[in-house]
Design brief:
The protein is of the alpha+beta class. The chain contains three helices and three strands. A three-stranded antiparallel β-sheet has the order 1-2-3, with no helix packed on it.
């Protein structure tokens, strides 16, 4: 993901709903890697984008993987995660 300078708070500021010091971005990545549910704070919902899914699959070695595209809201900012 390209890190737009306007999104510095997402990549650098600590999440506001827990005592740890991770950024919102790192918090989400950790949840995804550890197969943990995302808190409702992020208002996560799936997007169905067949063209994007195909483009991503073309880059993968294992073409059988299932791709999920999520839209997340980060404190008033939105991000699409592939």
């Amino acid at each position: 993901m390209k890190k737009d300078p306007r999104w510095q708070p997402i990549f650098n500021r600590s999440v506001s709903f827990t005592a740890d010091q991770r950024s919102a971005w790192q918090y989400v990545i950790d949840c995804l890697i550890n197969d943990q549910p995302l808190p409702s704070y992020f208002y996560e919902h799936p997007l169905i984008l067949p063209k994007h899914e195909q483009q991503i699959k073309q880059r993968l070695v294992n073409k059988q993987l299932t791709i999920h595209i999520l839209e997340l809201h980060f404190d008033g900012h939105m991000a699409i995660i592939y």
